[in-house]
Amino acid sequence: MTPAPLTPERILEATEDVLRRFGPAKATVVDVARALGVSHGSVYRHFGSKAALREAVTQRWLDLSHAELSAVADADGPAGPRLRSWLAALFAAKRRKAGDDPELFATYMVLVGENSATVDRHIETMIGQLARIVESGVRSGEFAGTDPAATARALWDATNRFHDPAYAADWSLPGIDAAFDAVCGLLLRGLQG
Amino acid sequence: MTPAPLTPERILEATEDVLRRFGPAKATVVDVARALGVSHGSVYRHFGSKAALREAVTQRWLDLSHAELSAVADADGPAGPRLRSWLAALFAAKRRKAGDDPELFATYMVLVGENSATVDRHIETMIGQLARIVESGVRSGEFAGTDPAATARALWDATNRFHDPAYAADWSLPGIDAAFDAVCGLLLRGLQG
């Protein structure tokens, strides 16, 4: 049997497995290479250092929800419901990540702490999607005309209880959905006002 | 010279000093008693356990800003500017605590983590003050009539970047005041909408 070609994606999948098994403190590039049945030199050909590999796997994890959210941001229809759907989809994706595999989530929290530039880029992408929704609402006359970039940032800040992993413990509280609805309702009225 | 009577307040002040000097991991009731020149039994007469003492000092620290904020919440005048003043006063108080004495702030972050019931009570007090402002705005017709308690909770959640110590590192960022203004503006329009 010819082995499958060693792609960056295969390396990143193996890295996630290794991180899950050994934890972020102990996982090494040699472990990743061993899991793939290749030399560690082969891994280094794709990712120049252990730090680069950890950064790439963090980026991949953060990007997982991008495509889905991007489709919501750029869908047709009125901006208000679209904004609410986007925020709800983000919250649902975060809850899934935190709830389905808490150990892997904790591992990624360590990686996120190590890769703040990657996290900053991710947040800018998220705020960029929010800005597109705000702009389309201003264009259609649904939202009062304000600085869409600043408004998008304010929406991001004002909803952080529902997307910042620092609040992950809150996401299974009984009143959390009502709290989410109350914040969304207030913000949407603010945009329309 | 007759020694000053051993009041709970004097014990709590000494406890804060001891925490500052030895750190939360090492500070003991014996250190507090020694700093006061009394026996540890005298301290235990006021606070039944080390845990009770740590809880009381945490409560005292959280309560420091209550009186000032409570006066803002119950001041005369229109509810909108009052709400903004209250949120600004809270943000200013938090920044002061975090910025003026970062080591003591870090110490209290450890204590806050140990005393979640005390923190929950503090948060309920804060949200109660917000609810009084919202109620007065609904009464005067400034704010649209909604559930003041739920609205107050939404205001608290939506402004957590500006009061939750988890974000303390953000409070010295260059754009933070503009971010605060953008969130406040959006929320105020939402209340009026």
| Outline type of chain A | elongated
Percent of sequence in beta strands of chain A: under 5%
Order of helix and strand elements from N to C terminus of chain A: HHHHHHHHHH
Helix content of chain A: over 70%
How does this model look, in words?
By secondary structure, chain A is an all-alpha fold. Chain A folds into two domains: 53 residues, Orthogonal Bundle (Arc Repressor Mutant, subunit A); 129 residues, Tetracycline Repressor, domain 2, CATH 1.10.357.10. Chain A is built from ten helices and no strands. The longest helix of chain A is centred in the middle third of the chain and has 24 residues. At the A-B interface, helix 9 and helix 10 of A face helix 9 and helix 10 of B.
Task: Give a short synopsis of this structure.
Chains A, B: It holds the Pfam family TetR_N. Two copies of one chain form a homodimer. Chain A is mainly α.
Topology:
Two copies of one chain form a homodimer.
Chain A: H1 8-22, H2 29-36, H3 40-46, H4 50-63, H5 66-73, H6 79-100, H7 102-114, H8 116-139, H9 148-158, H10 176-192
Helix pairs in contact in A: 1-2, 1-4, 2-3, 4-7, 5-6, 5-8, 6-7, 6-8, 8-9
Give a quick set of tags describing it:
TetR/AcrR family transcriptional regulator (chains A, B), 2 domains, transcription (chains A, B), 10 helices, homodimer, HTH-type_TetR-like_transc_reg (chains A, B), Arc Repressor Mutant, subunit A, 193 residues, elongated, mainly alpha, Tetracycline Repressor, domain 2
